[in-house]
Design brief:
It contains 3 helices and 47 strands. It is mainly β and 494 residues long. Among the domains are: 112 residues, Lipocalin, CATH 2.40.128; 98 residues, no CATH class.
C-alpha cells in the first residue's frame, strides 16, 4: 500500500512540475514563425492566417498582462490585454482591449506544443507557430560563449568585453559580473577598471571596482592610469590628481599632467605649445621648476628627458641638468642607454652623457630590444650591442626588431628570420613577414598570408589576403574583405 501511495505521489509531483514548467516557459516574447498544418487548411483560410499573423508578436508578462502586436516593431499597433492558462495548462485564454474603442475580446487558444524556443497555438483549424524572442541577456550569454572560444585577456579574474557596442565584465566561466552598460572599458588593474560613458565629444570617464560600484565618478573628460597611488584627471582644460577612492589630492589647476613615475609627475602650466613643463611630488609641491618646453612623460631609470629652447637633454630628480640640452632629438633611457640625434646622425649615450654607441648612423630604433639596437647605415640595417659593437652586419634592406629570439629581415626583396648571432634560422622565402608572437609569425608567400612556427613550418596555410597576430594571443586574418579570428590551429572562432 505504501509503495502504491508513493508511486501516486511521485506521478502527481511530476505532473505539477510539467504544468509549472509550461507556465514558466510561456513567459516572454514570441515572434511569428509560420502557419502550421497547412495541408489541412483551404487556400482562403491559409491566406487569411498569413495576413493576420505573419508580422505578429506576442509577449506574456509574469503578472498576467499581455501585449499583442500584429505589426511587430511598430509600437503604435500594439494591443494590451491579459492572459491565463486553464488548470491543466492545455488552453490559453487571451483577453485583448481595443485601444480606440475600449472594447474587450476574449479568445481561447489550444496549446499544441511548447518548448524553450517554440510555441504552437491553435484556434479552430488555424495553427500558428511562434519562435521565442531571446532577451538581451540571453543574446549576450550566447555571444559570451562564442567569445570564450577565442582569445580573451583576463586581468584579476575578469575580462572587459564588448557585446553589441556595450562593454561589461565577465569571469572565466563566462558569467556576467558587471553589467554591459559602458561605451568603453579597460581591464582591471589594482582592483580598479577605467570605464567610459557617452559618445564623442561628450565622453565621461571614471573607475569602478569589481562589484561594479563607481569608485571614481564618471564625470571627467579623461583619466590616466592609477600610478603610484594617484590618477591624473581633467575636466575641460584643467588637470589634477585624485587617489584610488576618488578624493582630490592635487587640484585641477594645470594645463596638462602625466602619470607619476619614480615619485614625481610631469605637469604643464598651460596649453600645449604655450605652457611650460616641470615636476611635482605627490603632495603637489613643485620639485623641478616649470621651465621646459616638453618632456617624455616622466622619469625613467632616474632620468627625465626634457626640451629647452628646442634642444633635448636629461635631468635628475633634483632638477640638475646631468646631460645638457644639446641634442636635436632623443629617446628616454632604456637599459642604461639613451638613443640621441646630433647633427642629423644617431647613436647612444649613458646616464653620464658618455657616448657608448658612436653617433654616426643614419637612423635608429628608439632603444634596445632583447639586448640589441637596430640601426641604419648607408641605407642598410644591422644591429649593435651596448658596447657599440656590430653584432649583426649592416646588410639588410629592411628589418624588424627581435621578438622571441628571432628578427624578420629582408634581402633582395625576400624575407626570412635570423637569430641574435645573425644566423639564418628561417630561409628568405617570403615576400613579407611580421614578428613572432606566442610562437607564430604571419608571413606572405605568393601574395597569400599564413602563419609559420619558429622552425619555419607552415601551421596555418597560405590562403588569406592579410594576417595579424593580436596582443591577446589571438590570430586574425582577412579573406574576401571579411576579418576572421582564428585559434592557433587555424580553426575559425565565431
Amino acid at each position: 500500500m505504501k509503495k502504491i501511495l508513493s508511486t501516486i505521489l511521485i506521478i502527481c509531483l511530476m505532473t505539477l512540475s510539467v504544468f509549472a514548467q509550461k507556465s514558466v516557459l510561456l513567459k516572454g516574447k514570441w515572434k511569428f514563425k509560420d502557419v502550421g498544418d497547412k495541408e489541412k487548411m483551404d487556400s482562403m483560410t491559409l491566406k487569411g492566417a498569413n495576413i493576420l499573423f505573419s508580422n505578429s508578436e506576442i509577449e506574456f508578462a509574469e503578472d498576467g498582462k499581455l501585449t499583442y502586436n500584429p505589426l511587430a516593431g511598430n509600437p503604435n499597433s500594439a494591443f494590451l490585454g491579459t492572459w491565463a492558462l486553464n488548470k491543466e495548462e492545455t488552453k490559453l485564454s487571451i483577453e485583448i482591449t481595443h485601444p480606440l474603442t475600449g472594447k474587450s475580446q476574449i479568445t481561447e487558444w489550444g496549446i499544441n506544443g511548447l518548448s524553450v524556443n517554440e510555441l504552437t497555438l491553435n484556434f479552430g483549424s488555424v495553427v500558428i507557430i511562434y519562435d521565442k524572442v531571446k532577451t538581451d541577456k540571453e543574446i549576450r550569454e550566447i555571444q559570451i560563449k562564442e567569445k570564450l572560444k577565442g582569445p580573451l585577456e583576463f586581468s584579476e579574474g575578469l575580462a572587459a568585453l564588448e557585446i553589441n557596442s556595450k562593454w561589461g565584465f565577465i569571469d572565466k566561466t563566462g558569467k556576467e559580473i558587471i553589467q554591459f552598460k559602458y561605451d568603453f572599458a579597460e581591464n582591471f588593474k589594482n582592483g580598479l577598471a577605467k570605464v567610459r560613458i557617452g559618445t564623442y565629444p561628450h565622453y565621461k570617464y571614471g573607475f569602478i571596482n569589481k562589484k561594479g560600484n563607481e569608485v571614481i565618478p564618471l564625470k571627467y573628460d579623461d583619466v590616466g592610469n592609477l600610478s603610484e597611488g594617484l590618477i591624473s584627471v581633467n575636466i575641460g582644460n584643467m588637470f589634477g590628481f585624485v587617489d584610488s577612492t576618488g578624493k582630490e589630492i592635487i587640484p585641477l589647476i594645470y594645463g596638462g599632467t602625466w602619470d607619476f613615475r619614480e615619485g614625481l609627475a610631469m605637469v604643464r602650466n598651460g596649453p600645449f605649445g604655450v605652457g611650460k613643463c616641470g615636476f611635482i611630488d605627490k603632495k603637489g609641491n613643485v620639485i623641478i621648476p616649470l621651465k621646459y618646453e616638453m618632456g617624455d612623460e616622466g622619469f625613467k631609470e632616474g632620468m627625465a628627458l626634457v626640451v629647452l629652447e628646442g634642444k633635448y637633454g636629461f635631468i635628475d630628480k633634483n632638477g640638475t641638468e646631468v646631460i645638457a640640452p644639446k641634442y636635436e632629438f632623443a629617446f628616454s633611457f632604456k637599459d642604461g642607454i639613451a638613443v640621441v640625434n646630433l647633427d642629423s646622425k644617431w647613436g647612444g649615450i649613458d646616464n653620464k652623457g658618455n657616448v657608448k654607441i658612436p653617433i654616426i648612423y643614419d637612423n635608429s630604433d628608439d632603444g634596445f630590444k632583447d639586448g640589441l639596437l637596430m640601426l641604419v647605415k648607408d641605407k642598410l640595417m644591422g644591429f649593435v650591442d651596448k658596447t657599440g659593437k656590430t653584432v649583426i652586419p649592416f646588410k639588410y634592406s629592411n628589418a624588424k626588431n627581435f621578438n622571441q629570439g628571432l628578427a624578420a629581415v629582408e634581402i633582395d626583396n625576400k624575407w626570412g628570420f635570423i637569430d641574435k648571432t645573425g644566423k639564418t634560422i628561417i630561409p628568405f622565402n617570403f615576400s613579407e613577414a611580421s614578428d613572432f608572437y606566442q610562437g607564430l609569425a604571419p608571413v606572405q608567400l605568393n601574395d597569400k598570408w599564413g602563419f609559420i612556427d619558429k622552425t619555419g613550418k607552415t601551421i596555418i596555410p597560405f590562403q588569406y589576403d592579410a594576417a595579424y597576430s593580436l596582443t591577446n594571443g589571438g590570430l586574425r586574418v582577412k579573406l574576401k574583405g571579411q576579418y576572421i579570428d582564428l585559434d592557433k590551429s587555424g580553426k575559425e572562432i565565431k
